[in-house]
Amino acid sequence: MEPIFFGLFLSLLLSTSLAGQPSRERDPVDWVDPFIGTQSARWFFFAPAAAPFGLVKLAPDTTGFGGYAGGGNTTGYRFPDTTILGFSHLHDFQLGGILFMPATGPLVTVPGPDGQDATGWRSRYSKNSQRAEPGYYRVHLDKYDVSVELTATPRVGCHRYAFPKSETARVLIDVGHPLGEGGLLQKQDVWNGGLRDAMIERADDRTLRAYTTIAPSYAEGDFTVYAEIRFNRPFRAYGAYRDAATFPGRSLITGFGAGFYVEFDTRQEAVVESYVGISCVGFDGARRNLAAETDGKTFDQIHAETRTLWNSMLGRVRIDDERPEAAQAKVKFYTALWHVLLGRGVSSDADGAYIDGTGHRGQIPVVNGQPEFARYTTDGLWGSFWNLNQVWALLYPEQMTSFAKYLLSVYRETGWLPDGYVVNRRAPGMLSNQTTPLLAAAYARNPDAFDREELWAAVWKNQTEWRERPRYTGQEALAGYSLLGYVPCDDIGYGPTGYTLEYAYEDWCAAQLANRFGKKPEAELLLRRSESWRQHWDGETRCFRPRHYDGRLVTPFDPNSGYSFAEGTALQYRWFVPHDIPALVREFTPEVFLAELTRTMEQAEKTGFGPSEVNNTAGLSLPYNHGNQPGLHTAWLSHFVGRPDLTEQYVRSICERFYGTTPMHGYGLGQDEDQGQLGAWYVLASLGLFDVEGMVRPEAPVAVIPPAFERMVLSIPRAPFSSMIVSSFRTVELRQEPGSGKSEANSFIPLHTLWEK
User: Fold this and answer.
1) Which domain holds residue 517?
2) Are 353 and 401 within one domain?
């Protein structure tokens, strides 16, 4: 087939292929480095023993025991830490728990202080003994001379421990302490949330059952996670504990501080294995998940199957570039893509059972022998239209369809689209609710998968209904916006001016659906509201300026201030009109727009496009901060004033300078990777494709620059994806054309050309 050329540097070669990738010398999994950025990262960042979008994210923890009330602090695995606390199964937004620790010698049931292993069960470990890749983790615990291997299926954590010869080889299972982000061990403190209850019991001579009830500080209520824990050999002895108090031979314990231990004689057989089925539905769900995903399989078989799955998912982008300088960029690329596929894990069972927000059991429809979609635990979608939404739409549309159907299922149950969601509890994202851009993008990608009337009703309500809106459904400033045409800075304390800009963009996204559905009056209203950004535009400072209830602009006004903007400043938000950048250019004038944009990016380049401090919420004093969502489109805006060569320069510089390959320098210096968002941006930048509008309409102009590699082959699934099954792919080839020079002036392509049938 003849290639189609867009500019001199990009060719798309189109063909049909069945699922699967040709064999390669080095698998995509082998390019992933999970340790990147682990010097300072959030709870869900490092979880190597996991399947794509898995509920189980099994990983070592070096800190986080007892939990904490915040949502962005460093916890979980930290590369510089010298001791391991244990290996826990849940590493997701506001979700943690069920920790295992193998040990030998005298029984010790408290972990001891961070960084020490003299008095508690913690153990020192050698960094050289670690191996981590998608789906697998290995380490040696020096204190106990125990080698640990971990792998996982979507809902089962798999452990293999090689003990020394001992009569008291032991596994501790702690369920009575919160782990990671989401709360403290405080029963009465409703704001701080934390652990509400826990239980663990012996079911037979090789099986335990456990649950932990968690009430995250960022969710509307508590929920319970259940575990079926099966060992490959019978216990020699067992008992319960509550913190330092031990109860040998006891079969059940409940409440705060609860834990259990089982012991084995390893003098003849050194290996102990455990398979832990997890469910958010009940004990029967945990048991069924364990059976469905591991029955008849060995640890090595499970590891091999999970590795194959990761290779299949990561392998939707194949890189052909043997230049020595490309090796580091490949590591960055596949690690970024791993983060895209790691975050936002499922919460429904393998058979489609789930618990809804009212506590009732639900059942996802089964199509072609498997659930039509899954339910998820997810942070809010704030800013995901510039990263995750686009990568999912392009490379993983079956996942995007599943996620969109989950959002609509919550709407059917509760009457509202969720913002964030932790198992079956609504959680606030950023006080907005950016499900509308995702649903618009999902429909644009796969229109046959959705009930149009239901989709429209959900989006319309999300954008327009502010009366009696429940807490944790976002859009908390929608009343002022609806009545005044902007969000007054007196309204709420967290980013009101920024919310005007976000709501205007969301209204425009909803208008695209209204036009496609033939709802002309609604489309006209939404398009008028999408102009609300003009209410804040200040021609003198060329920034969006906060405005009071009575219409007065805030005086004095400091564009470097974060007042009235969420996790950003007026200078960082000045480019936020993603749905109408040409109109914003006219407000500046093209010459001034280019000059201001160039100055911003040149200043940002001096600081590596992010803050110099190790802090995932830093960067508010900078003109551009790549470590947070509000300005992630900025580097691509030179396209709109005829200078894609500058876009290419800035994007490549960000990829080289902001993104690193060390534990200290990964996503900036510990910036907020936020369940795959910064990783997804790197993927798009490497492909040389970016839609400032968020891929919400098929005819959208996608900005194009040369790809980061000599040749990239994309396997893009063909519709439909109604039951999460991909039957065929469309191959798109991106190539750096020799001698092409810099980007051309008209470097846009229509979005639909990338995925049309």
Assistant:
1) 317-755
2) yes
